């Protein structure tokens, strides 16, 4: 039941290492299954979203975030006739390269790698599925389809795109040089990522006590659906009111994306996968919803992500990552043999640190420095 502009697994651009098809699963289903069984996917359960793992059992992690992105993306993909299995595979894999401690860890590792090409978690996610997973006898990585790999690589600098193009002519780096679009499924996952983290960061922010329902009254998008929830359920309060407000907001955003994307497809006359690449971005919010979503993002930036309590743990997390990098650069033998053999290559050290969970990084830092900056 795929639309003509959807990515068809029967016509995939294939894998870097050719494999025979299987009788009962499509190529995109195989990709999803490989991702779910990967080591990097399991580690996401102990990697920070906003709040560090030790700060509470119910806060989102990279794993729960990825599952929520997949759920939202599939909800949008089905009425648009897009390839749901591809959408799910991209969503579940998009954060596989994220460091411990969330964006704080990424920023610190990028500083450590500044003289060696830098560090970017989208590119690292591709590196994980292309090279770092060790599950199969004939090749490194998971050997995913082109379409899945393209969707994982959401952003890429020109310098990195040129390096990818040199290694794989016409591959996943090409669109960043040609300034063309990825598949609709990749576009959808990018937007579903934004919808998911805005919603669950409201939930986690209120649960943590760092933001309040009263403060959220400043946010038109949230306040509208809070008022709808109160009108539909007089006397509703506490967490039930928060959950119902978020549910209504998410539903409205999902319906908005479906309607706005259908209008964009009609307006541009796109009817084939090839047309999608030459068109402007097609999976989108309406103008009004985009503005309201941007206002919500700004609210979360100033009131949650830059909250002094978050900043305190962020600073400690950066210190842990920087000191781990320095320790391994000075004594590569402190890493496991498989990693130490590649050291003191800075990229090998970055690969090792990026693969750590929050608690393992905290324990390793304490082992190497004798200082306990974060609970392990």
From TrEMBL:
<dbReference type="InterPro" id="IPR006261">
    <property type="entry name" value="dGTPase"/>
</dbReference>
<feature type="domain" description="HD">
    <location>
        <begin position="62"/>
        <end position="198"/>
    </location>
</feature>
<dbReference type="Pfam" id="PF01966">
    <property type="entry name" value="HD"/>
</dbReference>
<dbReference type="InterPro" id="IPR006674">
    <property type="entry name" value="HD_domain"/>
</dbReference>
<feature type="region of interest" description="Disordered">
    <location>
        <begin position="1"/>
        <end position="32"/>
    </location>
</feature>
<dbReference type="InterPro" id="IPR026875">
    <property type="entry name" value="PHydrolase_assoc_dom"/>
</dbReference>
<dbReference type="GO" id="GO:0008832">
    <property type="term" value="F:dGTPase activity"/>
</dbReference>
<protein>
    <recommendedName>
        <fullName>Deoxyguanosinetriphosphate triphosphohydrolase-like protein</fullName>
    </recommendedName>
</protein>
<dbReference type="InterPro" id="IPR050135">
    <property type="entry name" value="dGTPase-like"/>
</dbReference>
<dbReference type="InterPro" id="IPR003607">
    <property type="entry name" value="HD/PDEase_dom"/>
</dbReference>
<feature type="compositionally biased region" description="Basic and acidic residues">
    <location>
        <begin position="17"/>
        <end position="32"/>
    </location>
</feature>
<dbReference type="Pfam" id="PF13286">
    <property type="entry name" value="HD_assoc"/>
</dbReference>
<comment type="similarity">
    <text>Belongs to the dGTPase family. Type 2 subfamily.</text>
</comment>
<dbReference type="InterPro" id="IPR023023">
    <property type="entry name" value="dNTPase_2"/>
</dbReference>
<dbReference type="GO" id="GO:0006203">
    <property type="term" value="P:dGTP catabolic process"/>
</dbReference>
<keyword id="KW-0378">Hydrolase</keyword>
């Amino acid at each position: 039941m795929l639309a003509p502009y959807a990515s068809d697994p029967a016509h995939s651009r294939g894998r870097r290492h050719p494999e025979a098809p299987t009788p009962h699963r499509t190529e995109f289903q195989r990709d999803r299954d490989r991702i779910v069984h990967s080591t990097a996917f399991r580690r996401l359960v102990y990697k920070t979203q906003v709040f560090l793992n030790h700060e509470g059992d119910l806060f989102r992690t990279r794993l729960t975030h990825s599952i929520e992105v997949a759920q939202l993306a599939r909800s949008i993909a089905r009425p648009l006739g897009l390839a749901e299995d591809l959408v799910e595979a991209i969503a579940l894999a998009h954060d596989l390269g994220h460091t411990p401690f969330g964006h704080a860890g990424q920023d610190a590792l990028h500083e450590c790698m500044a003289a060696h090409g830098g560090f970017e978690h989208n590119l690292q996610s591709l590196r994980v599925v292309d090279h770092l997973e060790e599950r199969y006898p004939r090749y490194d990585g998971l050997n995913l389809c082109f379409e899945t790999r393209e969707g994982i690589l959401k952003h890429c600098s020109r310098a990195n795109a040129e390096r990818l193009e040199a290694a794989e002519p016409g591959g996943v780096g090409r669109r960043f040089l040609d300034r063309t679009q990825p598949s609709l499924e990749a576009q959808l996952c990018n937007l579903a990522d934004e919808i998911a983290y805005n919603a669950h960061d409201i939930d986690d922010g209120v649960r943590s006590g760092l933001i309040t329902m009263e403060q959220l009254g400043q946010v038109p998008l949230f306040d509208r659906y809070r008022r709808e929830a109160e009108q539909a359920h007089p006397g509703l309060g506490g967490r039930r009111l928060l959950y119902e407000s978020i549910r209504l907001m998410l539903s409205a955003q999902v319906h908005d994306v479906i309607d706005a994307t259908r209008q964009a497809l009609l307006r541009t006359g796109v009817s084939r996968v090839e047309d999608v690449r030459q068109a402007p971005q097609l999976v989108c919010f309406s103008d009004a919803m985009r503005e309201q979503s941007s206002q919500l993002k700004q609210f979360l930036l100033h009131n949650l992500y830059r909250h002094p309590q978050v900043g305190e743990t962020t600073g400690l997390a950066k210190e842990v990552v920087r000191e781990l990098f320095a320790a391994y650069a000075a004594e590569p033998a402190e890493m496991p043999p498989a990693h130490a053999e590649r050291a003191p290559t800075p990229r090998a050290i970055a690969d090792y640190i990026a693969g750590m969970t929050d608690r393992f990084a905290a324990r390793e830092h304490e082992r190497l420095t004798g200082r306990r900056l974060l609970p392990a």
